[in-house]
Amino acid sequence: MSIYIDTHTHLDFPDFDADRDSVLAECERLGVRRVLLMGVTASNWDRIWSMASADDRLYAAFGLHPVFLDQHQPQDLQLLRDRLDQHAGDPRCCAIGEFGLDYYIDDPDREQQQRLFEAQLEMAVDLQLPALLHVRRAHAPTIATLKRYRLARGGIIHAFSGSLEEAREYIRLGFRLGLGGAATWPQARRMHRVIAQLPGTSLVLETDSPDMAPAFTPHQRNTPQNLPRICSELAALRGETPEQLARQCLHNTCELFDWSATALS
Ligand SMILES: [Zn+2]
After folding, report:
1. Which residues does the record give as a divalent metal cation 2 binding sites (predicted)?
2. Most CB contacts within 10 A, which of 46, 49, 98, 126?
3. Nearest to 76 by CA among 115, 129, 37, 125
């Protein structure tokens, strides 16, 4: 049986309050052995930390998401740094994220986003943590910025939907590309062509639950239970078997976070 890690979820969101335990039990049955929870605002950090501390399958990342710019307070960057320092060396705290640049939202405050982005990149450099990045319509400025901050451990470009050229730039900068349900939609033809050409060593799997529902459960709550089927559909686009792609992504994810793949099987 294939083993999977969902590298990007918001399983702490209220969408899962009614049945989180049964979702996780079902994940385990399906081989989805590890699930990452994203910190998006200072207000969800305690929640994801208590979830990750109480459950072997859950890992936490802490960050300040660009879409929630209005909710961030001036002191939040210092609070983030304090928290990362406090959890230093604790394997449950596995990355800084989710953060990045989003130029897709209405009227983005690019200057403010950039400041927040760079402050968190600085922490990733300082603390040698992987960075889990949210990038929408902002690949060029993201790549330009990453070239100025050399992240020893790289990270993940979550829900990657850029071009092959952009993918190559990220890979050169030490990043992996997070792929999920978006590619299961038949109309995503450009993405299908790019995915077919990406090097297997750069790929990791994610759902972004509860968002980004795959085509096979349209307009429903996305859950990490969908990851095995997403993997199968991605593998078909690449002319690989689902087992091959699952094994490769597991290896890539464990390498990034410095985890043992054998401990998961
Ligand atoms: Zn996210």
Report:
1. 134, 158
2. 98
3. 115
Burial class (CB in 10 A: 0-12, 13-18, 19+), 262: exposed
| Cα-to-centroid distance, 51 and ligand 1 (Å) | 17
CA of 82 to the centre of ligand 1 (A): 22
Q: Hey, CA dihedral for 97, 171, 209, 72, is it positive or negative?
A: positive
Q: What distance in angstroms lies between residue 126's CA and the mean position of ligand 1's atoms?
A: 23
Contact 121, 151 (CB under 8 A): yes
Q: Give the up-direction half-sphere exposure of residue 84: CA atoms within 13 A in the CB hemisphere.
A: 28
Tell me the average pLDDT across 207-223: 97
Q: Residue positions in the annotated binding site for a divalent metal cation?
A: 8, 10, 98, 134, 158, 208
Q: Using CA atoms, how far apart are residues 35 and 264, in angstroms rounded to an integer? A: 12
- Residue ranges of the binding site: 8, 10, 98, 134, 158, 208
Question: How distant, in Å, are the alpha carbons of 38, 88, 111, 218, 250 from that of 255?
Answer: 19, 19, 34, 32, 8
How does residue 2 score in pLDDT terms, banded at 50, 70 and 90? very high
**Which residue segments constitute the domains of the chain, with CATH numbers given?**
4-264 (3.20.20.140)
Instruction: Kindly give the distance from the C-alpha atom of residue 148 to the centroid of ligand 1, in angstroms, as a whole number.
Output: 24
User: Is 90 exceeded by the pLDDT of residue 228?
Assistant: yes
Query: How many angstroms separate the alpha carbon of residue 221 from the centre of ligand 1?
Result: 14
Query: Does residue 98 have a cis peptide bond before it, meaning omega lies within 30 degrees of 0?
Result: yes
C-alpha closest to that of 55 among 13, 86, 21, 85: 21
